[in-house]
């Protein structure tokens, strides 16, 4: 069994000092299929998302929270596509991140996707602070999840967050195992900043 025990090897090599939760955050695929997340910890992670900023304080985010072993978890897992299905079943929780892209009158909420992204980022950083790990997924059947959970007009599943504790790297398919231990990288800051005063 191979566990990534030297987590410092996964730390971001930053060009400026960051808080530890950001330096240590990464997106594993090897989750412990026996680990559970207590109700209080899960509530804390979701509370961090609740307090994210949003345009006009509309808070256009909703979350479908599915614990491993429940019918809801199976529904979410079965809607995943490609390699996501090969590993996400080991996560303790799958969270469907939903944006309220239009109000009750059908008026588009232009900032909803951005605001949801901020809420999920807050959730991810809090999870890291709690000793948990997250992995965001975009490969899933949107229509299937919308129908399964009765999401009406204006509500759009955008991503799914796998949440849990680190597990056995050897349990992953070979291709994913290589990606799990590959060096982390980011584009240089100079490529991302269009202009700086």
Automatic annotation (TrEMBL):
Domain Nitroreductase, residue spans: 23-67, 81-164
UniProt key word Oxidoreductase: yes
One Pfam family of this chain: Nitroreductase
Keywords: Oxidoreductase
SUPFAM superfamilies: FMN-dependent nitroreductase-like
GO molecular function: oxidoreductase activity
Presence of the UniProt keyword Protease in the record: no
Family from the record: Belongs to the nitroreductase family.
Listed name of the protein: Nitroreductase
């Amino acid at each position: 069994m191979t566990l990534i025990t030297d987590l410092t090897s996964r730390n971001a090599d930053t060009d400026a000092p960051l808080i530890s939760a950001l330096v240590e955050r990464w997106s594993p695929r090897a989750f412990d299929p026996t680990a559970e997340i207590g109700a209080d910890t899960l509530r804390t992670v979701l509370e961090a998302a609740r307090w994210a900023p949003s345009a006009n304080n509309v808070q256009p985010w909703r979350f479908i929270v599915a614990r491993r072993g429940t019918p809801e978890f199976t529904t979410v897992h079965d809607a995943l596509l490609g390699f996501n299905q090969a590993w996400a079943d080991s996560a303790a929780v799958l969270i469907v991140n939903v944006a309220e892209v239009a109000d009750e009158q059908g008026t588009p909420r232009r900032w909803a996707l951005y605001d949801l992204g901020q809420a999920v980022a807050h959730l991810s950083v809090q999870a890291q602070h709690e000793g948990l790990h997250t992995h965001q997924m975009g490969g899933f059947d949107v229509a299937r999840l919308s129908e399964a959970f009765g999401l009406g007009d204006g509500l759009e599943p955008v991503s799914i967050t796998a949440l849990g504790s680190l597990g056995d790297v050897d349990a992953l398919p070979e291709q994913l195992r290589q990606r799990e231990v590959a060096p982390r990288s980011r584009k240089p800051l100079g490529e991302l900043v269009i202009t700086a005063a």
